[in-house]
Write a structure and sequence with these properties.
By secondary structure, this protein is of the alpha+beta class. The chain has helices at about 20-30, 35-45, 90-100, 115-120; strands at about 15-20, 50-55, 65-70, 80-85, 125.
Length: about 130
């Protein structure tokens, strides 16, 4: 799905934040998805308006590998609330993240119904969007 450029601003698009802390990286290796972050990054590179944020430990190790998924507004590029998804180190959920990004991410409302089924069942909550510095 391509997005048309917004005159004088950002076209908006999907935002994905991935925990790449030591524990999440180890969980990816154990699950056979050590290349998962690279696969998501490749999908972001080929999706207009997509942004990937990687972060050290997010401090929610009880949720396994964690991802925040949000919609960035056209014009401002500011992200809305994030759906936080747990256990994204599994092969099925890694593939779901790639499909979510390449499909254009969430709609403006950013609801769980915008997610592939394998990610919908792993929504841990809704919270503030990842901060873009």
């Amino acid at each position: 799905m391509s997005r048309r450029p917004v005159p004088g601003g950002d076209a908006g698009g999907p935002l994905i934040a991935l925990c790449v802390g030591h524990r999440c990286a180890a969980l990816r290796r154990l699950a056979g998805t050590a290349d998962g972050v690279d696969r998501v990054a490749e999908a972001v590179r080929h999706t207009s308006g997509a942004v990937l944020v990687t972060a050290g430990c997010l401090g929610r190790c009880d949720r396994a590998a964690l991802a925040g998924l949000a919609h960035r507004s056209a014009g401002t590029g500011r992200p809305g609330p994030a759906l936080w998804v747990s256990e994204v180190q599994t092969p099925e959920r890694t593939a779901g993240l790639v499909a979510w990004v390449t499909g254009g991410g969430p709609g403006v409302a950013g609801t769980a119904t915008d997610l592939p089924e394998c990610l919908r069942t792993a929504v841990a909550g809704i919270g503030p969007a990842p901060r873009l510095a």
